[in-house]
């Protein structure tokens, strides 16, 4: 079913569009998003992957493969640590698929799942940065200055973009 649908081409195009929108949002709103001491990081790629799991229903999309590909590109283009997002994005897909088994996908459960996924992405990114000594921020400073504003931004983006993304997925099916 996936091979015969518009989803075959539409999903990767949307994924790479979200990848570059992440960077564009960060560039355009850098003074608001990266103030001292708070930092807000947009994760539109994670939003697209989570929505892929929420909206795939009876169509199996090769999300893990695309998560690895976009993770490689994300690492090469945006971060200084090669290998973090190669593992984090497929982990997000796995965790989301496990949660969808127990929670029926709708707007509010999607918001909860996205909250969990953003927390995982940010925590693992912070831990990787600590391991390679790219940051000396304490855990409590990370929670207050990075995780909380990032969650606020991304949950607001989820609320605004959920229904348009659902419309795109329905159109692609």
Automatic annotation (TrEMBL):
Xref: InterPro entries: Cell_shape_determining_MreD
UniProt signal peptide: none
Keywords on record: Cell membrane, Cell shape, Membrane, Transmembrane, Transmembrane helix
Top-level taxon of the source organism: Bacteria
Membrane topology: Multi-pass membrane protein
Location relative to the cell: Cell membrane
Main location group: membrane
Positions of transmembrane segments: 36-55, 67-95, 107-129, 141-165
Family: Belongs to the MreD family.
Protein name: Rod shape-determining protein MreD
